[in-house]
Amino acid sequence: MSEPTVPPAMPAEFGVYFALLEVSALVQRGVQGQLRDHGDLSFVQFQILAICGEDPSSPRSMTELADRLVHSKSGLTYQVGQLERAGLVVRVPSTRDERGVNVTLSPEGASLLERVLPGHVEVVRDVLVDALGDADRDELARLLGLVADHVRRRSPRPGRVSDSRDDQA
Questions:
Q1: Looking at the 3D structure of the chain, how many domains does it have?
Q2: Phi and psi of 103, rounded to 5°?
Q3: Of 20, 43, 63, 8, nearest to 116 (Cα)?
Q4: What are the pLDDT digits (tens) for 19-57?
Q5: How large is the C-alpha radius of gyration of the chain?
Q6: What are the Cα distances from residue 11, in Å, to 7, 134, 143?
Q7: What gap in Å lies between CA 39 and CA 33, rounded to an integer?
Q8: Average pLDDT of 63-79?
Q9: I need a labelling partner for 29 at 20 to 30 A (CA). Which of 5, 106, 125, 127 fits?
Q10: Where is the HTH marR-type domain (predicted)?
């Protein structure tokens, strides 16, 4: 009979990694129910609408959306297609790149975002923000910003998820 395999001890710095994963999963789970119940939206679909809603007069390229969401282009194409079929966004050819596609919020998408956003803010406050004082919240945002900047500097396209279909999207 063989000896049971004992996994190696995790490095001490993995504590921050596991804490980040746990908090991320808990926050995402908290907001997903609200988005589904009040807007029939997935988390990624809400993010697309929110980014497009930051400046409704400025269409967002699919590349920009993929980079900001850290999502594969093929997955993003599917999600944008779902939103377009629901009448929440409009895809238009890019005026800067003949192969590019831009996404803009439709009036229906803007209305849905306006309806869903207050409840979303309430849930985010409940599951994340209210656990921290102002100074801690600012420090956490600063630290996470450092990590995001570090990761983005290491990769020319940080939103690009390894997906062989991306080259065909």
A1: 1
A2: -120, 135
A3: 43
A4: 999 999 999 999 999 999 999 999 999 999 999 999 988
A5: 19
A6: 12, 31, 20
A7: 10
A8: 88
A9: 106
A10: 13-149
Residues with Cβ within 8 Å of 21's Cβ and at least 6 positions away in sequence, in order, are none
The pTM for the full model equals 0.80
C-alpha distances (whole Å) from 25 to each of 32, 131, 145 are 10, 16, 19
Q: For residue 75, what is the domain's CATH number?
A: 1.10.10.10
Residue 92 lies in a domain: yes
Range scoring the smallest mean pLDDT among 54-63, 108-117, 118-127: 54-63
User: By three-state DSSP, how is residue 165 classified?
Assistant: helix
Residue with tokens 């209305």: 111
- Asked whether residue 40 is assigned to any structural domain, the reply reads yes
CA distance 167 to 160: 11
pLDDT band at 58 (very low <50, low <70, confident <90, very high): confident
Please provide the size of the chain in residues. Answer: 169
| 157 three-class SS | coil
Q: How far apart, in Å, are the Cα atoms of 156 and each of 74, 110, 120, 152?
A: 19, 32, 32, 7
